[in-house]
Design a protein that fits this description.
- By secondary structure, the chain is α/β, with parallel strands linked by helices.
- The protein folds into 3 domains: 228 residues, Rossmann fold; 153 residues, Rossmann fold, CATH 3.40.50.300; 86 residues, P-loop containing nucleotide triphosphate hydrolases (Rossmann fold, 3-Layer(aba) Sandwich).
- It has 17 helices and 24 strands.
- The strands form 7 sheets. A 6-stranded mixed beta sheet has the order 6-9-10-3-11-12, sandwiched between helices.
- Helix 13 crosses helix 14.
- The termini are far apart.
- 44% of the residues are buried.
- This is ABC transporter ATP-binding protein.
- It is a peripheral membrane protein.
- It is found in: Cell membrane.
C-alpha cells in the first residue's frame, strides 16, 4: 500500500496481513502512517498503489460505505454519538428498521435488535439509557455495537483506551476476546506498549511510512517495540532523584469553578505545589480537571476560593499577567487553547509573548527574533516537518503538541501547569518531554501535572491527587499506590487498603 500527499509519502509500500479472529495492534511514532493506512482500509483515502484484500477478495473502497459493505468498521478516538439520544437510537441511527412501507421508524423493533446484539456479544448496555447519562466505558461499547449492527467483521479502533480507567481497559480487552472468539477481527492503534503486548496477538510497527516489523505479542518486549518505533534505544522509565521541595509556589484554597452550563465542575478543591516537585492529578477525563487547570492558568474565572502564586493573590489576574509572572501552561486541547491553526509556527511561537522583550519593543514585533525562537523550538523538540513557515494546521497532532510544549517550557517559568503534555505524542517524544519535566523539577521549578496516563502521572509525580466529580477523592504516594487502587479511586470508590498520605500535605 502506497499513499502520497504533497511533499510526503505517508505509506511506502506497506504490507499488512491480519488473520481472522485475532487482535492486531498497530504501533508507530507520530507521522509514521498508522492513521493514513487505516483510513485507506476504511475508504476515507484512495491508495496511489497497492490493494486491499478482504477474505481473499480484492476490494476497492471509494467511501466508508464501501468498506462497511465489505465488513470493515472503524471506531474513532473521539466518539461520534448523539448525547440526547438513547443507546438504541444511536446504534441504529441511519439504519433504523422501518414500518408502514418506510414511512416511520419501528422503534420497538430497533430496541429489540439492539438487545439481541448486546446479548449475543456479552455487552451489558441499557438500550433506553441516554448517551449523556452513561460513562465513557459504556460509550466505547456503544460505538463497537454500532459497527457490529452494520455487519462489521473487521473492527478498527483508534486509540480505544485513551479515556478509560484501568478497570474499563480490562473490560474492553475482555470484549476483544469475546469478539475474536466469535470470529471477529480487531485492529487497534495505540501508543501504549503494555496494552499492545497485553491485548494483541500480533503487533506491527510503522516507522517513516514503512512497515519495519511484525512480531508476535508473546515474543515482544517494551524495549524492543520502542526501538522499532523510534529507530534507537529508548529510555522508558523515568530516572529521577529524591525530591527536595522548597517554598510553596502555587497555593489553591477552596476553589469552586462552574462549567459553561453553570454546573459546579470544581468542588471546593485545595492544593499546593512547591519548588522542586511535581504534583500530579489523575482521573478520567471530564471530572473537573480541565476547569481546574484553566482557572489556575487564568483562562476561566473562579466562582469561589483563592489562587496564590509566589505569595500573591492572582485569582483575578489575566492570563497575560500570569505569564509575565512566570506561569506557563500546556493546555489539554492544543488546537482550541494552544495554537492559532492558520498561523505559521513563527506566529504561534510568539503567542503569550508578542508584547514582551526580546520579541517586541515599543509595540513593534522583531520578526527576526521571533523566527529564531520558533527555529529553536522546532529543533529542540524535533517538530516535523522542521519548517517554521508551515501553518500549524498542516502538522500532525503529535507535532502540534511538541511545539506547544516546547513554547511553554521555553518561557523559563517558575510554575508549569501541564495538562496531558504527551497526549497523542509518540514514545520517543514522550521520553524527551518526560526528561524536560524532570529537568524543570531538578532546577527547582514547580510542576502541576494532569494526565489520564497512569504510568506517566505515577512515574513523574511526587504527590498524586485523584479527582472524581470535581473533588479530590484522595492524595496518595505515587510509588506506593497500585494501578488497581488508582482505578478504584478514579471511579469514585475506596480501595480496601488505605493509600492516603497526610491530606494536609496537599493543602
Amino acid at each position: 500500500m502506497t499513499k502520497r500527499f504533497p511533499g510526503v509519502v505517508a505509506n511506502d509500500e506497506v504490507d499488512l496481513r491480519v488473520e481472522r479472529g485475532t487482535v492486531h495492534a498497530l504501533l508507530g511514532e507520530n507521522g509514521a502512517g498508522k492513521t493514513t493506512l487505516m483510513n485507506v482500509l476504511y475508504g476515507l483515502y484512495e491508495p496511489d498503489e497497492g490493494r486491499v484484500v478482504v477474505d481473499g477478495r480484492p476490494r476497492e473502497f471509494d467511501s466508508p460505505r464501501d468498506a462497511i459493505d465489505a465488513g470493515v468498521g472503524m471506531i474513532h478516538q473521539h466518539f461520534m454519538l448523539v448525547d440526547p439520544m438513547t443507546i438504541a437510537e444511536n446504534i441504529t441511527l441511519g439504519n433504523e428498521p422501518e414500518r408502514w412501507f418506510g414511512l416511520a421508524v419501528d422503534r420497538e423493533r430497533a430496541r429489540e435488535e439492539v438487545v439481541d446484539l448486546s446479548e449475543r456479544y456479552g455487552f451489558d448496555v441499557d438500550p433506553d439509557a441516554r448517551i449523556e447519562d452513561v460513562g465513557v466505558g459504556v460509550r466505547q461499547r456503544v460505538e463497537i455495537l454500532k459497527a457490529l449492527y452494520r455487519g462489521a467483521d473487521v473492527l478498527i479502533l483508534d486509540e480505544p483506551t485513551a479515556v478509560l480507567t484501568p478497570q474499563e481497559v480490562e473490560d474492553l480487552f475482555g470484549v476483544f476476546a469475546e469478539l475474536t472468539d466469535q470470529g471477529k477481527t480487531i485492529i487497534f492503534i495505540t501508543h501504549k506498549l503494555r496494552e499492545a503486548m497485553t491485548a494483541a496477538d500480533e503487533i506491527t510497527v510503522l516507522r517513516g511510512g514503512e512497515n519495519v516489523g511484525t512480531v508476535p505479542a508473546a515474543d515482544a518486549s517494551r524495549e524492543r517495540l520502542a526501538e522499532l518505533m523510534v529507530g534507537r534505544e529508548v529510555l522508558l522509565d523515568v530516572d529521577r532523584s529524591e525530591a527536595t521541595p522548597g517554598e510553596t509556589v502555587l497555593d489553591v484554597r477552596d476553589l469552586v469553578v462552574e462549567d459553561a452550563r453553570g454546573v459546579r465542575a470544581v468542588d471546593d478543591v485545595s492544593l499546593s505545589v512547591r519548588e522542586g516537585e511535581v504534583f500530579g492529578i489523575a482521573g478520567v477525563d471530564g471530572n473537573g480537571q480541565a476547569e481546574l487547570v484553566e482557572a489556575i492558568a487564568g483562562l476561566r474565572a473562579a466562582d469561589a476560593g483563592e489562587i496564590s502564586f509566589r505569595g500573591r493573590d492572582v485569582t483575578g489576574w489575566s492570563r497575560r499577567d500570569r505569564i509575565d509572572a512566570g506561569m506557563a501552561y500546556v493546555p489539554e486541547d492544543r488546537q482550541e487553547r494552544g495554537l492559532v491553526m492558520d498561523f505559521d509556527l513563527v506566529g504561534n511561537g510568539l503567542l503569550g509573548s508578542q508584547h514582551a522583550r526580546p520579541y517586541a519593543s515599543n509595540g513593534r514585533i522583531d520578526w527576526d527574533a521571533a523566527r529564531e525562537h520558533a527555529e529553536e523550538i522546532v529543533a529542540d523538540y524535533d517538530v516535523r516537518p522542521p519548517d517554521v513557515d508551515a501553518r500549524a494546521v498542516s502538522l500532525s497532532g503529535g507535532n502540534q503538541q511538541k511545539f506547544v510544549v516546547g513554547r511553554e517550557f521555553a518561557r523559563d517559568p517558575r510554575l508549569v501547569v501541564a495538562s496531558h503534555p504527551t497526549r497523542g505524542v509518540d514514545v520517543g517524544s514522550t521520553e524527551f518531554i518526560h526528561a524536560r519535566i524532570n529537568a524543570l523539577r531538578s532546577d527547582g521549578r514547580a510542576v502541576l501535572l494532569v494526565s489520564s496516563k497512569l504510568e506517566e502521572v505515577q512515574s513523574l509525580s511526587d504527590r498524586l491527587a485523584v479527582i472524581y466529580e470535581g473533588a479530590f477523592v484522595d492524595v496518595v504516594d505515587p510509588e506506593a499506590v497500585t494501578e488497581e487502587q488508582l482505578g478504584l479511586l478514579m471511579a469514585g470508590e475506596r480501595p480496601e487498603t488505605d493509600v492516603s498520605v497526610d491530606r494536609e500535605a496537599s493543602r
